[in-house]
Structures are given as structure tokens and as C-alpha cells.
């Protein structure tokens, strides 16, 4: 079987970095986490100098999305416009803050959220727009940011599938008010699991650092009326050294996770280059009517195609030893989000047609050629 996913790991460097960190008594949230935040920041601003790099490492992208909603001020009774076709990790945190997800239709040629339908879904209760760069293909951010500015809405980028992708020279996840990244097991950059939150605002960044750790400011503590560098002690000379002013969470990353991420980050350009090579071959060899829109900024995490009959296509691919999957399904079908198929014409049209084929750096050229030839025979 040629697998759909395969973890991308710089194994030798991971073992070296883990050996180093395991010699240290601090394996929780420490210096390696900060180093990882800094290195990811350097990567994100590589071709977009001047961008503020306000990054907070978290234990998952889902946690980062939850923090983004809190920072955006989303509360009970508010509405958040979100794509209907996405991982449920995009949508669950909307419920956690007591808001209502308003499902938006997708574009036929990208599977991304449709800006035209966003406008139709805005009400007096709308407070934010969530975009998810599906499979790494950039959303139409100029249109979306213009809508957000017109209606004074916050934009949260779910860039879980889009690490390394770009939109007009700017890295995906750094365009909206907040960007959320995933380093889960099969992502392009993996820590085994983990995430990261980007905040455009310095104030949001400072608050996010506290929210991820029980609401505690771990960088400063108050002793006898003065702020001093924190030693993480609760008391000093029998006096409280910090206070907690709002509900916080246990969303931090740890040094072990960060060390794996740092090792894999050393090869990120190679990983992205190889993924693009594979995607380019697919785009060249596969039937044109099955392809989504081309975008040079695609992060190429998934390669999704459109087929006339997905069930028959997957059966035939499976008989040839090639794994395929939908990866994500429309969220309005889940009971937790309502359980009723909504009137979303594009989603309804493509519901039985989209499918992902293998895309990972462990594919050989022989694998890629076999996949292409098999698909062409099916078509």
C-alpha cells in the first residue's frame, strides 16, 4: 500500500536534540520552547521583513484556535462565520466560547471558504471570520480582509494545513488578526503534536502568553509592589509574587516537543521543495478536469482532486494499493454542530467528488508515476 500520509522526521537530529534535553532537568515549558518560537518566527518573516513575530507555542493547533477566539472577544450569543469543509478542530472552539458557528459555502475550484457567501452570512451578531487554507491552498485573503475591515470583524486564520504557504509574498497564518499552526504527527513540520498562535497585536500576544499557562505571567512577578523577573515561585518572604486575573488554560508546549520541532525545522525548505515537486508532477500528468486552482503559494499539504464517482475511484485505487481519503467532511452533518445539511450549493455539488491522493516526502518517483498512471486509467 502506498500510504496517504507518512510522518516526515529528521530522525538523527531528533535523537541528538532529545538526548540533549533529557540530560537537563527542565523538560517542560522552557528554553527550547522559546527557541522554537524564535526559529519559527525567523522562517515566517523570511521573505516579509518588518512583520512583528508574536508567536506563542501551544500543545495543539486546536488550543491556539481557542485562545484566538478568547483574544478576539468572542462570547456567548456571538456568531462566527466558518467554512463548512474543515477539520472539526476549527469549529469545536467556537462552541467552547459559547458562540454559534455559521457555516459558509466553499469555492468550486479551491474547496476554500467563499468570500461571496461570507457577505451573505454577516449579521449584527457576527464577530469574526475563520478561514482555513484547505490542504495548504491559500484562501482569497484580499477579499476576506476587505470584508472584515468593512464590517469591523476579526479574522482568524486556521493555517493548520498551510505551514510554509504564502499569499502574495506573505506567509499564511500572518495575514489575519490571528494565525493558528499545527505541528501534529502528519503535518509538514511535525513535533509529534503541538501548535502555535500568531497574534498581530502586541497586547494580544502578551495576554496569550498568560492565558496558555493558567493566566499567570511567567515572565514577570510582583514583589512588594515592583515587577521583577520571575523565578516561578509562588511566594517570596511569605508574600504572594503573582496574581491571576482571568481564567487561564494548560495549553503550553514542552521542551521535548519543541526539540522535535527544532530538529525537523532544520529541513523545512527541503520538505516544502519536495512536496512542491510532487504536486507539480501531479498537476502536469493528471487530467486537467480533476484539478483544483493552481496557486504558487500552495503549501501542498494535501493534493485534492475532483472525481465523478468517489466511491468507485477509491475502490479502484485501493485495488492498486494506493490509499485515498476525504480527510475532512462538511461540519454541518455532525450532530454537535446541528446535524442538518445546509443549503450550500457548492458544497452540495462537490460533496461526493473531492478526494485526497498521497502527498509526502517519502513517495518515490516510481510511486508518483504509478499513482498518475493508475488515475489516468481510471479516468
Tags for this entry?
379 residues, alpha/beta, Aspartate Aminotransferase, domain 2, Aspartate Aminotransferase, domain 1, 7-stranded mixed β-sheet, two-stranded antiparallel ribbon, 35% helix
CATH classification, class level of the largest domain: Alpha Beta
Helix count from the secondary structure assignment = 12
| Structural class computed from helices and strand pairing | alpha/beta
At the fourth CATH level, what is the homologous superfamily of the largest domain?
Answer: Type I PLP-dependent aspartate aminotransferase-like (Major domain)
Largest sheet: 7 strands, mixed
Characterize this entry briefly.
The chain is α/β, with parallel strands linked by helices and 379 residues long.
Overview of this structure, please?
It is a single chain. The protein has 379 residues and is an alpha/beta fold. The protein folds into 2 domains: 11-265, Aspartate Aminotransferase, domain 2 (3-Layer(aba) Sandwich); 268-378, Aspartate Aminotransferase, domain 1 (Alpha-Beta Complex), CATH 3.90.1150. 35% of the residues lie in helices and 16% in strands. It has helices at 11-22, 31-44, 61-71, 88-96, 115-121, 141-151, 202-211, 255-265, 268-285, 310-319, 345-350, 365-378; strands spanning 55-58, 79-83, 100-104, 126-132, 154-158, 166-167, 170-171, 178-182, 195-199, 220-223, 226-229, 235-236, 239-240, 303-306, 354-357. The protein has a 7-stranded mixed β-sheet with strand order 1-9-8-5-4-2-3, sandwiched between helices. Strands 6-7 form a two-stranded antiparallel ribbon. The chain has a two-stranded antiparallel ribbon with strand order 10-11. The radius of gyration is 22 Å and the shape is globular. The protein starts with 10 loop residues before the first helix and ends with a helix. The model has no long low-confidence stretch (mean pLDDT 93).
Amino acid at each position: 500500500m502506498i500510504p496517504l500520509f507518512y510522518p516526515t522526521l529528521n530522525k538523527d537530529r531528533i535523537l541528538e536534540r532529545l538526548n540533549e534535553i533529557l540530560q537537563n532537568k527542565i523538560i517542560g515549558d522552557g528554553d527550547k520552547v522559546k527557541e522554537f518560537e524564535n526559529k519559527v518566527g525567523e522562517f515566517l518573516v523570511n521573505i516579509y521583513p518588518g512583520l512583528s513575530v508574536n508567536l506563542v507555542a501551544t500543545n495543539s493547533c486546536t488550543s491556539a484556535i481557542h485562545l484566538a477566539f478568547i483574544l478576539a472577544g468572542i462570547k456567548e450569543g456571538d456568531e462566527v462565520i466558518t467554512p463548512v469543509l474543515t477539520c472539526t478542530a476549527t469549529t469545536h472552539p467556537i462552541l467552547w466560547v459559547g458562540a454559534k458557528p455559521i457555516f459558509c459555502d466553499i469555492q468550486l475550484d479551491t474547496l476554500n471558504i467563499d468570500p461571496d457567501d461570507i457577505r451573505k452570512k454577516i449579521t449584527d451578531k457576527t464577530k469574526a471570520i475563520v478561514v482555513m487554507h484547505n490542504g495548504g491552498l491559500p484562501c482569497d485573503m484580499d477579499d476576506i480582509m476587505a470584508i472584515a475591515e468593512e464590517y469591523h470583524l476579526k479574522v482568524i486564520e486556521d493555517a493548520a494545513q498551510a505551514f510554509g504557504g504564502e499569499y502574495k509574498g506573505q506567509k499564511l497564518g500572518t495575514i489575519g488578526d490571528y494565525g493558528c499552526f499545527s505541528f501534529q504527527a502528519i503535518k509538514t513540520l511535525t513535533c509529534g503534536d503541538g501548535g502555535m498562535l500568531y497574534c498581530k497585536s502586541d497586547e494580544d500576544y502578551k495576554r496569550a502568553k498568560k492565558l496558555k499557562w493558567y493566566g499567570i505571567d511567567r515572565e514577570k512577578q510582583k514583589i512588594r509592589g515592583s515587577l521583577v523577573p520571575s523565578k516561578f515561585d509562588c511566594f517570596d518572604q511569605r508574600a504572594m509574587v503573582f496574581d491571576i486575573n482571568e481564567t487561564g488554560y494548560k495549553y503550553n508546549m514542552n521542551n521535548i516537543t519543541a526539540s522535535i520541532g527544532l530538529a525537523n525545522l532544520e529541513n523545512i525548505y527541503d520538505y516544502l521543495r519536495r512536496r512542491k515537486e510532487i504536486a507539480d508532477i501531479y498537476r502536469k500528468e493528471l487530467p486537467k478536469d480533476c484539478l483544483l486552482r493552481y496557486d504558487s503559494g500552495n503549501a501542498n499539504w494535501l493534493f485534492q482532486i475532483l472525481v465523478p464517482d468517489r466511491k468507485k475511484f477509491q475502490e479502484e485505487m485501493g485495488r492498486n494499493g494506493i490509499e485515498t481519503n476525504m480527510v475532512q467532511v462538511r461540519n454541518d452533518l455532525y450532530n454537535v454542530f446541528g446535524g442538518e445539511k445546509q443549503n450550500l450549493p457548492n458544497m452540495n455539488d462537490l460533496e461526493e467528488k473531492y478526494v485526497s491522493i498521497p502527498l509526502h516526502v517519502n513517495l518515490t518517483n516510481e510511486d508518483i508515476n504509478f499513482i498518475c498512471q493508475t488515475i489516468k486509467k481510471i479516468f
